[in-house]
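User: Fold this; tokens only.

Assistant: Input:
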Amino acid sequence: MSQYDFDQIVSRANTNCIKYDFALERGMPPGLLPMWVADMDFRTPPEVIERLVEVARHGIFGYSEVKEDYYQSVVGWFERRFGHLFSTRSIVKTPGVVYALAIAVRALTEPGQPIVIQSPVYYPFFRTVQENGRRLVDNPLIYRAGRYQMDFEDLEKKIVSEGAKVLFLCSPHNPVSRVWTFEELETLGQICLKHHCLIVSDEIHCDFIFGQRKHHILTSVIKDLEELSLILTAPSKTFNLAGLQTSNVFISNAELRRKFKSEISRSGFSQLNALGLAACQSAYDHGEPWLTALLDYLEKNLALCRDFFKDRLAPLHLIETQGTYLIWIDFSPLGLSHDQVNKLVIEKAQLWLDEGTMFGATGALFQRMNIACPRSVLQEALERLEKALK
């Protein structure tokens, strides 16, 4: 039996968390069960909590930096988990992956230049491109027989025709939960190497891989990609630390790293949150047993979803969930419009999910649901959906 109690319901009400306390502000009616934003309803590992308490008790929260042991903790995590050794000098710390996306846009491109994305995809990919005055070029994923795959022919065609020099990659993919194979990443990498297209790879969900699959860090697939890639990582999804705003970007190419750091400086940012730095190091040093237990728990949550959709939620289709703790639900078999699907979910099922259009037009008849919660909560959400269908 696990020493960690993931079945425990920890109330998050009245804690200023956006998941539970801001329905009204976000245009939602009261009483919805929130299964939307990508943070978990589980406490972070006890070792991390103890470290944060220790730092808090010291009582001084001045400007803080890290020494070599922090960098060793970060690279050690990825070497142990994925067999890939990053150089400590390649690390650039940022207050989040979305911030890093925006900095990459400004550091690597000029206004009006194209950036390729692969929709449906994490909505800040759209926002950071468009709000920084760059041109969005979409290379939509192919949805066929209930499964997503990359359209490599279209990708190469658009890189060439649009003159694109930057691609945003989501790996594992949010929201369609694909874990890209070595061969898929190799093909993508070869196309980008051929046309000297930089890759900004968001790998924040890399620790959530299910079954016998394996996450491949992009630069481990083809070594030459080190010269063209920025690998975006953070402990925030893995250990539920999003509010502490700490992420680590790996940039092997010295010139790309210089451009990236210069843009950070121009943004007016310097040191990270002192508590975030302490939590990150503690999580990577001590959090592996907790993560092992968590992955086992999430596997069982996912099994519950698979069985429930198969037996009780027809004709809805659950996309094969390979990675992340987010499931992607196809409502198109119902024959409803986008607005009708939203009405079904919100008014009938009393659920707060992420509607598919957030992730691009190709997600219009889909909804994203967060299953990183106690199993009793997940069971209730599925039963609400079942009742609404009936």
